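Worked example (supplementary).
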Amino acid sequence: VSYVTGKIMAQHHPDIHMLTEFSAGVAPPGIVLCIAAHIDYCPQCQNQVTKLEALGGALFEIEGTEHERTAQTGALDAALEKTLAAIDELEAAAVDDRNNLSATKTDQPENSLPGCLRSLIPKGLEQLNWKKIGASLRVARLDAGDSLNEVALHKLQAGGGVADHDHRGQEITVVLKGSFSDQNGLYMPGDFLVRNAGEVHAPKASNDGDCICLSTMAAPVRFTGLLTRIVNPFLKIYPST
Amino acid sequence: MHNEDTIEERRQALADDLKRVADHQDRAAYARLFKFFSPKIKSYLLSLKSGQLTPEMVEELTQEVMVKVWTKAHYFNASKAAASTWIYTIARNCRIDFLRKANATAVQLSADDLWPISQEPEPVTFLEQHKAATAIHEAISDLPTEQAEIIKQIYLKGKSHTEIAELTKLPLGTVKSRARLGLGRLRTIFDERSDISSESNFE
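After joint prediction of all chains, the assembly is encoded as:
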């Protein structure tokens, strides 16, 4: 285990393809959110993204020459003038804003969560619409604007587990607080896990505290264990898209 | 065309102009940036998922990006990123927010929350950054076409690996391994975490 500024560094990371799609702005919003959350814990992946962005910037600079050749000076001047006018307008409005600077400070009740999640959890974790799924699991859906994936927070009670289930689609999980384990290992805050369709697992939270994870799921979860019928309500909040 | 000197000189000139905008609201410097970058922003926005944005939307968005270049210029730090990288990330974020708003979903989640523009936990010295930019330009032009093509499809056409596989009728694994090989050849900038793929769940 290695430490950076007192934080335990994540041991499980998105792969290079995911980071590439993230840096190019190509990944779907739910996956972007998971990668952004992971990066908050992981300076190495942050560093990698910085480099990938430099690659994107270089391609943007090299390839964007088509319009330079065809752009007419007149049209470019007109666009510049229009943009400067927009800037003037904005600056006039900014002066007004400063003059009646009121208490627009937003509350940040969840400072311990990655910054990318704060706007989705404006009133804190407790105020989310948590649904009880079985004895020890609670789920709160987040509106990340993703039509292909279900994005949610999962809260597993200390020591609690989830029945064996497999996935019809890819599921990405990022540990935010606490820790959990499955047959493959123990996962700590920042860890980024990908479960592909068909993989079966039974996560269990560590005994020392509740475990909160961010998850993005491509298709409904299907339970495979004996508890299938009992925990079936789980399916209701993950309608097929 | 992209020899080392001109790239570095241009890079320095663009960074200086951004600093002039930040420090002195210098409109002449801004005009130079505008003339250099706005056609590139337009090209970028038009080529992404070709046809997704109408020419009118592209005009509107290009202006929005260039307005942000003015209002956010003080966030630009030449020791952290090239001007073109910084403006690329603004264009990327503006486009994503624009599409999200157009779909009327989750407008409370802004792209700047997801890709914080000024964040950098491991500061890179100016020299390293300087070398990296030149190295990127050189390395890209040296890439085998089939690898460069995939990387360009991702960054400039906005395609995912899966979409490229569908489009080219290549197996997804082939697309990914070409992308990986291409990035591997850009080793000067990616050497630190070439081991990251060992964590992959996609092989």
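Two points are worth noting when inspecting this output. The two ends of chain B are 38 Å apart (CA to CA). Chain B touches chain A through 81 residues (CB under 8 Å).
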